Automatic annotation (TrEMBL), chain A:
Key word Cell membrane present: yes
Name this polypeptide is given: NADH dehydrogenase (Quinone)
Membrane spanning residue stretches: 6-26, 33-52, 72-95, 107-136, 172-195, 216-241, 280-301, 308-330, 336-357, 377-399, 419-440, 461-480, 582-607, 613-631, 638-658, 664-683, 695-716, 758-777
Organism: Natronobacterium lacisalsi AJ5
Region annotated Disordered, chain positions: 783-802
Residue intervals of the MrpA C-terminal/MbhE domain: 694-775
From TrEMBL, chain B:
Keyword ATP-binding: no
Transmembrane segments: 12-29, 35-55, 85-103, 134-153
Protein species of origin: Natronobacterium lacisalsi AJ5
Top-level taxon of origin: Archaea
InterPro entries for the chain: CPA3_antiporter_subunitB, MnhB
Localisation per UniProt entry: Cell membrane
Protein name: Na+/H+ antiporter MnhB subunit-like protein
Topology with respect to the bilayer: Multi-pass membrane protein
Coiled coil: none
Domain Na+/H+ antiporter MnhB subunit-related protein: 5-146
Length: 802, 154
């Protein structure tokens, strides 16, 4: 069955549309606008549900000339993720009005939340690389707004900036990876498939050999891994995710369970058939297991319930990444099934954490306990979801973790990976022990002694309990009958992410096998270690204090500290208010970049220059050189300006001799104007500074700029004096019939390249406006005229525009 | 600069420069010239006036208005006029580019018509690009004169 294009498009567009209207709705509905959001999310979910079981491409032309279309590919995997986002989104929207009651900035909050959901649905379904990238970065932007919801709060702003910095930065790596992919796809599969991920996934072998032939395989793998790893908070950039808990709890629940942090995992599953191999295994299994273990340890060290859950999210994301990293079918099953399970139990856990924080007024683990008497329903729900998080049978997290153990054991059968064959399973078990530990710790909020200082605890409002209850019921259903979930959603996801899909079975183990033994070790290990929880907790906490680089955000923190200082230092050097400094840096940088570019692309080669110069041209050039020397040695400004214009007029005559009257005319006119302007301002120019160092620097700079211009002309004109290029012939033959003018230069300027000319007009206008602004600003601030840079800027403008 | 020689010369050459500038602009499509060169040449004529007669001459001597002393240069009526000129120029250029969209052609598409047997000129060609070129001319004149007068006033 093929998907209905209007329904798929509606499901993606609707959240954005309503997001745009939310400020208006907020005026009409007030805080109840959250329920309108819930209706939209539910509608999205319903629309997606009608497409259940379909597979195919939906396409809308976007930038046809670049083969970029708004392509959506609907299949089991995309639908699973999109339905999770919209389904959990519905519950979050239902939960938010009660939780966010009385907060400010709600219109912005719901706008961003809706756009966030729409972007996630977009990423899940998009099949065009450019579309994926746009939605991908949109999720980062929306999360920036959401995490920074408390705009007055320093921590909130810091966390928002950090999330933005890490995820958008990672997105740029992804973009480069996409471009490399599209280059290869354009060559291998034809230009129409350049950005079409579906086409690439249909021809994985051709793509892989194409990537390997060009040496792009490892770069693409690495770039996509950075993109996905930053988004999904893998080690070593796992620090942003716990900070993101500065967001209001509904956002945390959404962000950590169903949406942005899973986008990376989802995307890995998507491209898995394309890139899977031994490099893939080594990279993602290692990164994933490292993340799983490190973050599980950090979760044990956490002191705040949301922090615990946040690190546990990162740890579980590591589990999914490791799952997809293993090349066997079990790997794909782990990734897909755990994505579903984690979304169910983690969303519920965050919402429960929100209830606890909201009703008990504290999020400190040490201040909470014995809440089951005050919050009995919540406690019952927590039993299901927390044990599920810990991977305790028969709860749903157990099944997918069992699959990870299976995949880790299988890894050495598929590839010769030496000692890693037993390190992977060992690390998986080690990490799982801590998973059990922190899951039990979270559960202990509701059991044991109730601290004295805990005040009276209110019953939570019905919507607050309803949302996690729905999720808990779903988690319980999956726990009781995992085969149901497999048949309904997981199998089709596995089909899309596995190389050799076959029927998947999960269930409680009936006899002993190695994975069962591993699970037993993890659970028993966790239970045995639990009495020593406090000692472990403080033990892990002391590590970063003793070794600062071991602390999660140490690298980010030092980088963020160093950059502004380095930036300020650089600005003081480059941007010191003296025109000559600006000119030096700009010219030197331009020359260096241009020359380096030519050198890197191998454009500089020994070229034979024909020195057949007519006498007239030679004479003009001799005069020009003499004038150039005279400029350099002139004693006064007036003499310098006059000799400089001799040079300019000689260039104009050279143009005439080279039969370019238009250029000559422009040169003459501009030269005259520049001369006049120089005469106008000559008294304002400060005296020469004759220090030896500065003269030497200027000499080096002049030679570099001259060399750059020379080489550029040589390369750009293909060093063929007298010969005509294709471009030149094109304009020469088309000018009269198409432009109706015999002056090719002007016809080119206004008819063929009108857009360039328009750009230049904008430059002239901008220059005028900026000079106007500069002077207005100066007079309004009352600064005395001193180092004025107007005329020089203007003179360069005139030159640049032709 | 405001010597008698300079002023006398300026009186003679400024009209010539302006006429040449207009000629260059009109002929641009078939002979060397065009909006940019015409614009720069026009600016040159104004620069000569400024050099020979001072910055206030345009307002006092040509337009016959009183100059308000101590006014910010950017608020000067002449400067405002120049600013408007390049703003309109940019608008003309963009609008002339938008017209083809009405005929379902890409942005900035240009065309031309030829008339035969017109009195005196005999053969006249009208190119739509003239409108765009006029925009170029206005932006160049307006932009450069804004810069010139504002900086000159300092």
């Amino acid at each position: 069955m093929t998907p209905e294009s209007s329904i798929v498009l509606a499901a993606v567009v609707l959240p954005f549309l309503v997001a745009g209207l939310t400020p208006l709705l907020y005026r009409a509905l007030g805080e109840r606008v959250g329920y309108a959001g819930a209706a939209v999310a539910a509608l999205c979910f319903g629309l997606l549900a009608t497409q259940y079981g379909t597979e195919g491409i939906v396409e809308v032309a976007w930038i046809p000339s670049l083969e970029i279309a708004l392509q959506f590919y609907v299949d089991g995997w995309g639908l699973l993720f999109a339905s999770l986002a919209s389904g959990i989104g519905t519950l979050i929207f239902l939960y938010s009005p009660s939780y966010m009651h009385g907060e400010t900035g709600l219109a912005r909050f719901y706008t961003a939340l809706l756009a966030f959901m729409g972007s996630i649905v977009g990423v899940a379904l998009a099949a065009n690389l450019i579309a994926i990238f746009v939605f991908w970065e949109l999720t980062s932007l929306c999360s920036f707004v959401l995490i920074g919801h408390h705009t007055g709060d320093e921590d909130s702003q810091y966390a928002a900036r950090m999330a933005m910095f890490v995820t958008v930065g990672g997105g740029l790596f992804l973009l480069v990876g996409f471009l490399l992919l599209s280059i290869v796809a354009g060559d291998v599969l034809g230009p129409a498939a350049a950005f079409d991920l579906t086409a690439m996934l249909e021809n994985p072998d051709a793509m892989e050999s194409g990537l390997r032939d060009r040496g792009f395989f490892l770069p693409v793998l690495g770039l996509l891994a950075i993109g996905a790893g930053t988004k999904s908070a893998q080690v070593p950039v796992h620090f942003w995710l716990p900070n993101a808990m500065a967001a209001p709890t509904p956002v945390s629940a959404f962000l950590h369970s169903a949406t942005m942090v899973k986008v990376g995992v989802y995307f890995l599953g998507r491209v898995r058939p394309l890139l899977v191999g031994v490099e893939w295994l080594l990279l993602f299994a290692t990164v994933g297991l490292a993340t799983m273990t490190v973050c599980a340890l950090l979760a044990v060290a956490a002191t705040d319930i949301k922090e615990l859950l946040a690190y546990s999210t990162a740890s579980h994301l590591g589990l999914m990444v490791a799952g997809f990293g293993f090349t066997s079918i079990y790997g794909a099953e782990t990734g897909v099934f755990h994505l579903l399970n984690h979304a169910l139990f983690k969303a519920a856990l965050f919402l429960i954490a929100g209830i606890v924080a909201h009703e008990a007024g504290s999020r400190k683990l040490s201040e909470l306990g014995g809440l089951r008497r005050d919050l009995p329903i919540t406690a019952a729900m927590t039993v299901v979801v927390a044990l599920s998080m810990g991977g305790i049978p028969p709860f749903n997290g157990f099944y997918s973790k069992e699959l990870l153990f299976e995949a880790a054991l299988e890894a050495s059968h598929y590839h010769d990976i030496g000692a890693l064959g037993w390190i992977y399973p060992a690390v998986a078990v080690f990490g799982s022990i801590f998973t059990v530990l922190y899951s039990l710790r979270f559960l202990s909020l509701f059991f044991g002694e109730r601290p004295e200082e805990l005040g009276e605890i209110h019953r939570p409002a019905i919507p607050l309990v309803a949302a996690p209850a729905v999720l808990t019921v779903l988690a319980a259903v999956v726990s009781v009958d995992p085969e149901l979930a497999v048949r309904a959603a997981v199998q089709s996801g596995v089909d899309a992410t596995a190389v050799d899909p076959h029927e998947m079975h999960v269930g409680l183990p009936t006899e002993y096998s190695t994975p069962v033994g591993m699970s037993a070790v993890a659970i028993v290990g966790g239970l045995v270690a639990y009495p020593f929880y406090d000692r472990l907790h403080t033990g892990i906490q002391t590590i970063p204090r003793a070794v600062p680089p071991a602390s999660p955000s140490w690298w980010y923190g030092s980088l963020v500290d160093v950059l502004p200082r380095a930036g300020a230092g650089l600005a003081a050097r480059v941007h010191n208010g003296l025109l000559r400094t600006y000119a030096t840096w700009t010219l030197a940088a331009t020359a260096a970049f241009a020359l380096a570019g030519f050198a890197a692309t191998g454009m500089i080669s020994a070229t034979g220059l024909g020195f057949e110069i007519p006498i007239a041209v030679a004479l003009v050039l001799v005069v020009a050189v003499a004038a150039g020397l005279a400029v350099a040695t002139s004693e006064t400004h007036v003499a310098g300006v006059l000799t400089l214009s001799i040079l300019g007029f000689m260039v104009a005559i050279f143009y005439i001799l080279a039969s370019a009257p238009d250029l000559a005319l422009t040169q003459l006119v501009v030269e005259t104007l520049v001369l006049l302007i120089f005469l106008l301002v000559i008294e304002e120019i400060p005296e020469f500074d004759e220090s030896l160092g500065r003269t030497a620097r200027d000499a080096v700079l002049s030679v570099a700029v001259g060399a750059t211009v020379f080489v550029t002309v040589l390369v750009a004109t293909d060093s063929r004096p007298g010969g005509t290029t294709d471009v030149a012939r094109y304009y020469a033959t088309r000018a009269v019939p198409e432009g109706g003018g015999t002056n090719i230069v002007n016809v080119t300027l206004v008819d063929f390249r009108g857009f360039d000319t328009l750009g230049e007009l904008a430059v002239v206008a901008l220059a005028a406006i900026s000079i106007l602004t500069l002077i207005v600003m100066r007079s309004s601030r009352g600064i005395e005229p001193g180092t004025e840079s107007g005329p020089e800027t203007e003179a360069t403008d005139g030159g640049d525009d032709e | 600069m405001t010597t008698v020689i300079m002023r006398t010369t300026a009186r003679v050459i400024v009209p010539i420069i302006l006429v040449v500038a207009v000629t260059l602009f009109v002929e641009g499509h078939n002979l060397p010239g065009g909006g940019f060169i015409g614009g720069v040449l026009t600016t040159t004529a104004f620069a000569v006036i400024y050099l020979a007669f001072g910055l206030d001459f345009l307002e006092r001597g040509v337009l016959g208005r009183d100059v308000e002393p101590g006014k910010e240069p950017s608020r000067d009526r002449v400067v405002v006029a120049y600013r408007r000129l390049f703003e309109y120029g940019l608008a003309i250029a963009v609008l002339s580019g938008l017209v083809p969209l009405l005929f379902d052609r890409p942005f900035l598409t240009q065309t031309f018509v030829e008339f035969e047997g017109v009195p005196i000129y005999d053969h006249v060609e009208l190119a739509s690009a003239v409108a765009f070129d006029l925009g170029v001319y206005c932006v160049v004149v307006g932009g450069l004169l804004t810069i010139l007068s504002v900086v000159g006033a300092e």
